[in-house]
Amino acid sequence: MEYSGEKFDVIVIGAGIMGSCSAYQIAKRGKKVLLLEQFDFLHQRGSSHGESRTIRVAYPEYYYSTMVIESARLWEEAESEIGYRVYFKTPHFIMGLPDDKKFQSVITNCQSNSIPHCILDHLQVSERFSGRFKLPENWIGMVTEIGGVIKPTKAVSMFQTLAIQKGAVLRDNMEVEEIKSCDQSGGIWVCTSNGEKFWGRKCVVTVGAWMKKFVKTVSDQELPIQPLQTTLWHWRIKDGFEKEFSVDSGFPTFSSYGEPHIYGTPSLEYPGLIKIAVDGGNPCDPDKRTWVSTLLESSVTQWIEGRFSGRIDSTQPVFTQSCMYSMTPDSDYVIDFLGGEFGKDVVIAGGFSGHGFKMGPEVGRIVADLVLNGDAMGVELRHFKLRRFEENPKGNMKE
Ligand SMILES: Cc1cc2nc3c(=O)[nH]c(=O)nc-3n(C[C@H](O)[C@H](O)[C@H](O)COP(=O)(O)OP(=O)(O)OC[C@H]3O[C@@H](n4cnc5c(N)ncnc54)[C@H](O)[C@@H]3O)c2cc1C
């Protein structure tokens, strides 16, 4: 197949969840779209691979809760279009000290915006989860019913398949090394390291942890998006308790606020194993990763031993997986026009700061609106502006 020199309405660079959802949304609107990926499709060197991602409506910021609600609808819509499931519903459970600032913000958001939730003391938590969670007496828990687990690799594959069905062209092993405005006819030239060249009326950049490097190369702008290398740990559930920690048994996704911030998902793909990991990681260059596991602190093993009433083997994880976050200083996303010589012809979506996957379908919709119409209807995008870092290097100030 030869597409070099061919013209497209939109060229999307980077085929993780954000690029795949964007290509699908653009193709769905009848536009000719090309999706380019530097590695093999569905590779494991970015951020969108693995067993599970949490979807939760419980956020400190209301603008994310509303995006999740819309995204959940779009996940289900895509599932019915493709005919298989990637999204498995289960509640979300938060635990921590009642005076934890972030925990308080989540509760306030749920209370102020009528997001169904239930606050429990340590005894009620034990009862609600039939003894599977055990909290210290001075901790509280909060359960929200809108939540679940998404299978990431399968989900990316689903959106790529749907995009192809709508007429999108997908090419992998295409590392984009340059984009430039076309003086004569307008639009953008997209050039790859293997010498291919494509023309797009518009362009979308969804290159994940490579965003800072990419934007520096193509437009000499310094974006404060820091790639972090992080490690996922899977732990063995002790004999006889395996079923209790599965999605089918109503075991929730969970997040423990405080130090360390621990999160996890129910047992899903790997029978008898449960994912429990620490939020955060170590700064890295996405092209020179060490693949070395994040240091496992004793506070994590102690947390596992205590919180699950000894039903998880906390000696050591059974296996680990490496992944990357793309952190902004305020942990808010960047979804905006690149500006400069590209004006409104190039949209970038990145800096998803370790919490973007669940939003993929909604981000795809917003990106399609921005790149095709110049505006995203019904969404407040001021939190995601690129220029916020010029006004304040720390971005959106949060309490
Ligand atoms: C361990 C871990 C746990 C997480 N847990 C959750 C969770 O529970 N819930 C949640 O919502 N989110 C979670 N996230 C975050 C979520 O996974 C990410 O926000 C999301 O996957 C980012 O997707 P992306 O498409 O921006 O990046 P990526 O998936 O990395 O995709 C970017 C793509 O661009 C390609 N690319 C880069 N440069 C070029 C180039 N020059 N030319 C062509 N292609 C290029 C890359 O190869 C890559 O495939 C987690 C992330 C990690 C690492």
Automatic annotation (TrEMBL):
Residues 9-370 form the FAD dependent oxidoreductase domain. Its cofactor is FAD. One of its GO terms (molecular function) is sarcosine oxidase activity. PROSITE patterns: PROKAR_LIPOPROTEIN. Gene3D superfamilies: D-Amino Acid Oxidase, subunit A, domain 2, FAD/NAD(P)-binding domain. It is an enzyme of class 1 (oxidoreductase). SUPFAM superfamilies: FAD-linked reductases, C-terminal domain, FAD/NAD(P)-binding domain. The keyword Ubl conjugation does not apply. It catalyses: sarcosine + O2 + H2O = formaldehyde + glycine + H2O2. Keywords: FAD, Flavoprotein, Oxidoreductase. Its EC number is 1.5.3.1. Signal peptide: none annotated. Belongs to the MSOX/MTOX family. This is sarcosine oxidasee (formaldehyde-forming). It comes from Tetracentron sinense (Spur-leaf). The lineage of its organism: Eukaryota, Viridiplantae, Streptophyta, Embryophyta, Tracheophyta.
